[in-house]
Amino acid sequence: MNFGGSCRILAAWIPVVFLTVSCGALTARAFTSTDADTIFDAHIKAFYREEGGRAWFTKHTEGGKADFWRWAEQMEMVLDAYERTTNAQQLVMFTNLFRGFLADHGANWTRNEYNDDIIWMVIACTRAHLLTGNPEFRDVAQTNFDLCHARAASTNLGGGLWWKTDNQSKNACVNGPGAIAAFLLGRATGESAYFTTATNLFLWERATLFDPATGKVSDNISANGRLARFALTYNQGTFVGAANLLGYTNEARLAAAFTMNQLCRDGYFPAAGEDGDGGGFNGIGARWIARFMKDRGEQATFERWLQKNAEAAWQARRSSDNLSWCRWPQPTPDGRRYSWGCSSAVVIMQLVHPTGMVKPETSQ
Q: Closest by alpha carbon to 3, among 275, 217, 344, 265?
């Protein structure tokens, strides 16, 4: 990677007309499970291509190919959809994307100098194994995690993983995902050493990049010890994900709350450029925060905020093809759209409980 509910009656005396207006306003921006299907299908129609059982995502609506890590993360998007729908065709789609990825990048990914790129694909493949039991996904993930960890881990700066093979900085974007990948591999392989690795990586990130007073996760620390203190939604999300998996719920809650209260404006995830790495940051952040929320029963704190963003992503879609960019609530413009930049809208709509109800068909 190149850059590092529903309406609630508050009191019995509230006039019915007020309740009706409130519910109408909510319904106008609500989304349904069918809408979540629609935005996923629109993404697939626009960007998914397959030939001879090998598939890929195009870079944009006019063609090209998604690069290594954006391809891997859109494979995670497919798994997000499957976890919501249990539609077996989405697992077929993932397998085809896996075949296409290996055809382009091989089964050994160490030619890629970015350690985080490798880790993102490890997470995608390990998640797929845990959902399917397919050992091929697990084995290639395990091999590449081990190779990546061997070259990226060091005792410099107290531990953690280097971002790139030039060993110039240790970044949240590899250490949070590294902890998640190791934990999932522990589940997939039954080898306890992976849980130890996951804990060590998380504790290093907590000690070095995390501010326990605010919940902020700084982006990186350079080899000379200088801290880059800016925060990004995907780094917050993977820190939350690792903390949740390992049982550090207070840290997870603090980092999720910082994302919601400090990185968002008017409650909306920050806008990003579609063709830059930031185009998919919000989907990654939302993925791991939503999982924490569900695992730990934190809906009262975080669900309405996530739903607001899912509603905005849906309302921001363009009518011509139902694609929604990464700058909601602004409407998606005409012209070229990027698969990565449109993925966050798809992801968040797979993760959160719909705010609208699908009306049942009535017999005539």
A: 275
> What are 211-263's pLDDT values in tens digits?
999 999 999 999 999 999 999 999 999 999 999 999 999 999 999 999 999 99
Neighbours of 53 (CB within 10 A): 11
Residue 105: pLDDT above 70? yes
Residue pLDDT, tens place only, 323-342: 999 999 999 999 999 999 99
DSSP string covering 288-356: HHHHHHHHHT-HHHHHHHHHHHHHHHHHTS-TTT----SSTTSPPPSS--BHHHHHHHHHHHHHS--SS
Nearest CA to 90 out of 123, 59, 55 is that of 55
CB 23, CB 7: distance < 8 Å = yes
Q: What is the pLDDT of residue 200?
A: 98
Instruction: Give residue 316's region: left, alpha or beta (phi > 0; psi -120 to 50).
Output: alpha
pTM of the model: 0.92
pLDDT value of position 8: 28
Cα(229)–Cα(115) distance, rounded to whole angstroms? 21
Judged by DSSP in three states, 57 sits in strand
| Number of helical H runs and strand E runs in the chain | 13, 5
Q: How far apart (Å, rounded) are the C-alpha atoms in residues 183 and 179? A: 6
What's the DSSP call for residue 279?
Answer: G
Phi, psi (rounded to 5 degrees) for 61: -70, -10
